[in-house]
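hi support,

uploading two proteins for the ticket. first:
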Amino acid sequence: MKKFLILILICFIQNIFSQHKEVKKSQDDLRDNLKNYKKEEIILDENHIYNTAGLEILPSFPGGTFKFHQFISKKYKKPNKQPSLQGKIFATFVIEKNGTLNDIKIVYDIGFGTGDELLRVLKLSPKWKPGKQNNKEVRTLYSLVFYLPK
């Protein structure tokens, strides 16, 4: 019985000392956190690739997206083996700080060399206006869906 009482006493003392927490007396003022957030210095990674969804100023082709699709349609040549081929080609590329296209990848194509032809055309693209974040030009990942012309 003594051993059991000593065990209970040890558990009770351990429970008291192990649950010591400092209780916060005042509520957290979220407005103060917002003020501190605006004052904090934001450090940008020079080589970070941003998504277009979070940028302040999006990258743009000279003349706009309509001119970009016109450029691709003019330069793109359908394969001779399948002139009636139709479908979509998905590609991604990085628009660098100087406006050049880099790391061009064909994510999905419909075969017969359609992806290779789009890759060739994208390499011919003139320089873009790069995207901006915090008034600095940044590298931006751009996704493209190209519909084969009829």
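and the second one:
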Amino acid sequence: MKTYLPKVNLNERKWHVVDANGKVLGRLAAQVANLLRGKNKAVFTPHLDTGDFVVVINAEKVRVTGKKETQKQYMTYSGWRGGEKRRTVAEIRARHPEKLIEHAVKGMVPKNRLGRALMTKLKVYRGPQHPHAAQKPEPCAVEA
């Protein structure tokens, strides 16, 4: 019995629009990561990129539960002494709300060159408009 390997053609990729308005960040990120990897398809292969493009709109309206808005911190380090910065969810939401979703999804894809390729297919926008109307994206229902 031979193992079936799908032909990965760029023509077969769909575009999905996900509205983040009122959705919980972690649950939204898990479902977006599954769409990016192609886990919803019958031809899913773990080591191949069989997923679709995902456009996330209304990123500033994503919801976090509990006290995460003020207590959860994201840390960055420049590599220099004293170069550690910590920002709360509220601070990131005020400046770059897209980074909240990108960071959460990035943690749910593989940590290798496949994961980096998958992240190029994620497009996140803070408002309800996006410039991908020419690709005819179809709305995707994501559970709250």
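thanks. also noticed: Strands lie at 15-19, 53-57, 73-77, 84-88, 122-124, 138-139.
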